[in-house]
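During the second year of the project, the team shifted from modelling isolated chains to modelling whole assemblies. The rationale, set out in the original proposal, was that interfaces cannot be judged from single-chain predictions alone. As a representative example for this report, we include one of the complexes processed in the last quarter. Its constituent sequences, exactly as entered into the pipeline, are reproduced here:
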Amino acid sequence: MELPQRVHVRTTINGQAQEFLVPPYMSLLDTIREIAGLTGTKEGCLDGNCGACTVSIDGRIVDSCLVLGAEVDGKSITTVEGLATAKGLHPLQQAFLEEAALQCGICTPGFLVAAKGLLDNEPDPSEERIRHWLAGNLCRCTGYDKIVRAVQKAATASH
Amino acid sequence: MVSTFEPKSNYKVIGTRPIRHDGLDKVTGRAIYGADIKLPGMLWAVVVRSPHAHARIKSIDTSAAEAMDGVYAVMTGADLPAQEDRVVDLGEGSANFRWASDNIMASDKALYRGHAVAAVAASDRYIAEMAAGLVKVEYEVLPNATNVVDALAPNAPIILEDLVGDDLGEEVKNTNMASHFRHEFGNVDGSFAKADHVIEREYTMQMVHQGYIEPHNATAIWDQENRVRIWTSTQGAFPVRTQTAGILKLSESRVKVTPLEIGGGFGGKIPIYLEPVCAILSRKSGGRPVKGVMERRSVFEGSGPAPGGVLTVKLGATRDGKLVAAATDIKLEAGAYPGAAVGAAAMCVFSCYDIANTRIDGWDIVVNKPKSSAYRAPGAPQATYAMESAVDELCEAAGFDKMKFRVDNAAHEGTRRGDGVIFQKVGMREVLAATKASPHWRSEIGAPSRPGNKRGRGIASGYWFNIGLKSSVNLALNSDGTVELVEGSTDIGGSRASIAMQAAEVLGITAEEVRPSVVDTESVGYTDVTGGSRTTYATGYAAWKAANSMVDELKRRAALLWEIGEDNIQFEDGVFSSKTDSELKISFKDLAGKLNDTGGPVNTTGAVDLEAAGGAYGTHICDLEIDPETGKTDVVRYTVVQDVGKAIHPSYVEGQMQGGAAQGVGWALNEEYFMNLDGTMMNSTYLDYRMPTSLDLPEIETVIVEVPNPLHPFGVRGVGEVPICPPIAAVANAIHDAVGVRLRDTPMNPGKIMSALEKKG
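Output from the structure prediction step:
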């Protein structure tokens, strides 16, 4: 079986310029994990239904399992590893810790990136809005209660 | 001898809510889960699975896959060592190696759709997938039976030809019935005959999946010295070692298992699937590391879900509401090999009540579905759905108040459980009292959000016995007064914190000053699974022991410093002092800085093997709203009341209560293995399986009840499993309250609600 030629991609991940060759069939999720080596973004289902692989592309949140690595040429990607800065944790990360909003933690990176996508555009969302926005991210441990509270707390803390 | 403890209340660390020690790595993406490991020269494994629910494997041709560029090894069931019958206890469940090996990879027959039949290792995942597609398997498709009714039918296909069933002690051949047992106490039939009110009802349930977001994974090296190293996401590194060594026919000491972070388990990550496959592929590729990660469809079709089944419950009561007799028949689907959690179901089914005359018949039935495994209180949610629905049905038939009936008949110290165990101090009455006092119970249901919709309220109680078993903890004291804690219990939901806090409480230091680590099987003593709600109980007990040994050793060191007798030293509030000379005192931290003057490092261990644990109860209140035009059901308010013994870290206790309730609500309303006639699960994606999202659930209120467990130094009972027991019945009872139909078949989805409403007219 003949394998197709790799595609040359220049992109920015968490503010850092990156350049790599990616097989044309490789998902962005695998590109981030296997080529860029950032394993904070998780695989849960590979069909866009769990949100564990949520990343932001040019400010828009997507399931990275549904995007090809070859599609992000010239784009800017943020993963969970890009949330904390030298100044400290993102308010969402701090709130997730304080509110015990994670149990196993596998869905946490996706929830954090998705919630950041909400708060970046809507700094004061209602509980209903938060629940609606996060409905694309599955958590099987918490029943969502403490996740919703943590997002509410982070929204308040960011004001 | 079993030690018992008196409850205390003046704790400094226990009952507080520190930030968990592993939290930072988990919110920054640094935590390494099973699939995150990368080793030099690593290959990817992909498993070839049966598309048929029941088929004889006539031939497997791996030549095209082997010939592909980038492929290093291909294996089939023939590469697994031959096994004889040998049963091993895994803590929560057990395994017969002959069947466990056959489940890893089919030998002569595929017994369920998704059953592994071959596997490929290649240089990357995509090449491995392409190569897996080149493995040619020729099948002779056989008739299938995917539920207990079909499997027990007279003309049913026999799934395991060599199965010898045990029917109340009699051997049965040519059967799908692995076992039928009975527990009977008192005069059951005579009591039914004398009872004023008797009802008997049948309930049907479908198989469901634990639904952990992280797929199963394993990475293995089988090297040239015949040593196997495994990295995996598991609820128990030691049981993985036992199972892998058994299946590969190696001595356990040749297998080292490193547990990486685990993305959910709920009982489903106790059995192994990929570990021996990756190990054999590693050996066949010259000792290269081989990693495998299941696709989601394979997790549904090829891991270990929770059994569906058929349950009947018969209850008899006097006219003044005394429950005098109960009988049940519990038939659960084992999956393709024996071992449904029917024994545990029998231990739980009547356990909320004090009933003098009880009979329990349990049946373990083999069907053409994946081998079932534990799912959070295995067997108990099924039993509780049937029992707590039947209790409401009895109350409705006899006109009893449903809360009063539950209070009047509640189990208590001295009650005999359905399998004969006599309860020690238990908290059923306290839980019901707290339920009645809860804000939810004292509030009105409220008006529907839309005219025409109907609201209803249901309650249900549940019980889980919890387990003890073996745990080991090592402590090492640092010169700055902090303590390293090494444990063998993998941390699924905050147990590093709850165990470290128990050590800190004894040592008089803060939770943050104890640094917990979960380590591999060569770095700590034997520890059973994180399951059975045992970790905070048993591993916490081991930490308590190790911490007390450390205090004893430090008393010896203080005695050396002060040149006084050891028995003259006391330890209180983090300070060692002389009982007779008030000048002599030194803090835990300062003494830790003087270890070099008193004999060097202080390392202590705690090991336990606890036969008993403390059983626990919960009662749930569910308010829901139904649109009678569509059958759509929304849970609008939900409260979990539970006896936890003692909440070490209340946030994570609440988290267990909320998470278990959420899973139970999903089980009640949406979730099922929807099988077609070919034995194919038709909804093997998250989209179609439809677990609850954040939009499907309301805030889940929690009421923590603390009736200390006399068997634990701090009174811990274990909390993880009880909360999944009541929800299914609570939802069924609320549906009945809302629209007057009784659903005796899960999931209680809009279609079933609509047909019940139509039938009612």
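The longest helix of chain A spans residues 108-121. The CA atoms of residues 42 and 106 of chain A lie 7 Å apart.
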